[in-house]
Amino acid sequence: MKRYYAVGAGVAALLFVIILAISGIRSCAIQNRYEKEVKTREETVVAVRFYQSDEDDAPIGCMFVEKGKDFTVPYIPYKDGYIFAGWYNGTDENAVIYAGANGESIQTVTEETLLYPRFVPIGGESE
After folding, report:
1. What pLDDT score was predicted for residue 52?
2. pTM of the entire structure?
């Protein structure tokens, strides 16, 4: 003869509360670990955004690099009749080159950086 035990509503509610508490503690621990990883990542990684010109509102590309580390730009732009000279932090004559024509970094970055391509006319001065 089988015996069946009825679990009272109070015991079932208590088990339900215990299960919720355990899963809540676990999800808080996961969320705290995630927040720590994001904070650590924000402290060590910066965005580098690539624009076709200083008139563009939207970047043509973006990458995240570690602060102070070398990086390689995956974008090599093309302009008909010109040779790509590298990625600069501006479009004026005082702009600093950050990555050469081969995409290898020359300067390291420590904060969000906007880079613009510089082109040299074939047989002429830079643009």
Report:
1. 86
2. 0.62
